[in-house]
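To whoever picks this up:

The parser on our side crashed when reading a file containing two proteins. I've narrowed it down to the boundary between the first structure block and the second sequence. Both blocks are reproduced below exactly, byte for byte. First block:
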Amino acid sequence: MTTQRIEIVTYKIGNAVEADQQRDIARNRAVALPGFGGWLPLSGGKDQTERADVILWDSAEVAHAAGKIVGSSPDFAQFRDTISEFGEARFYAAPADGFAMMQPGDGIEFGRFRLRAGVSEDVMRTAHANMIASHLSLQPGWLGQKLVRLQDGTFVDVAFAVSEERSIAICGSWAGNVSCDAFLGLIEPISMEFGSIS
């Protein structure tokens, strides 16, 4: 099971133009923090001084470590200075199959396949979930994974990672893994493609 954590931080700002500029700078700097998975900036619908940031982390541990950096590092001082009133920061567990907050440069892998003769969709989905929980979600840079059933009865396994390079590396980690081999034994691969968000 994934240990990803979704952090939701609420606060108020003074000068909206300066606050938005500094938040963009902070987001770009946060990319370098260990375990960072994405930052969705939100602004109040009625009160334009209200802000909420939804931030994805690989685990609770890296989220708390990053919070200390953002709260004290000179690199984030100008961002902190735009905050006039702090609300709260709460953490939530991400779905078991991960939560991908896509950013430019993030990687995607599309693996299309069909079921082997005699294999039920339920059995395949159980093996897929086990593979994610016991192996894929533990790989550095993994952001999430979803199964898509197409109208022709084939499936697409869509996997998300922090970069195209990490997508390829995670795909390479399947070889020899027991849970991955169990899943592969149930399917007939059709195609596999990699790409990145632009």
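<<boundary where parser fails>>
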Amino acid sequence: MSDNIDLSSAEERMQKAVEAARQQFGTVRTGRANPALLDRIEVEAYGSKMPIKSIANIGAPEPRLLTVTPFDPNSMKDIERAIRDSDIGLNPQNDGKILRLPIPDLTEDRRRELIRVVRQMAEDGKVSVRNIRRSEMNDVHEFRREGDISEDEERRAEGELNTLTNKYVKQIDAALEGKEAELLEV
């Protein structure tokens, strides 16, 4: 790495972009029960919208079942409504204390649709990584214009940024590949 240019913040931001993409993948339903499926759901309770995990315990006691246990039994109907109205396609069963969410098998069409969704999420993640590279490249070019670094340092920093970018794009591709395999698993 060149003396005047520190790319650690760019690398840190790229790592966060990859992590955000992985978390997004976790919110896509596969054939298996995963508490992360409910991460995007917000419940209208106590006069405001809150993440479901802040007002209930979420568990996966079986491979094809999620359970939601509200901290306050009075919020059960609000949680049930939020899950039903969400786009995850689960139908809660309310027994008065716990909501059970059976995870149905995915149809072939639904699998293809979800693969399109995760590919778009992956593309969004890669765009984030590339935007970080562009931002850092602009800074490097600005340093060069101001005479703070030499042409060689500028080229070296560009090469390092491209290497970092490729590394993190590959990580997103690998995570996408894993998620696609998970979705195609019957």
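After patching the parser it read the second block fine. The mean pLDDT is 88. Strands lie at 42-45, 48-51, 56-62, 65-70, 93-94, 99-102.
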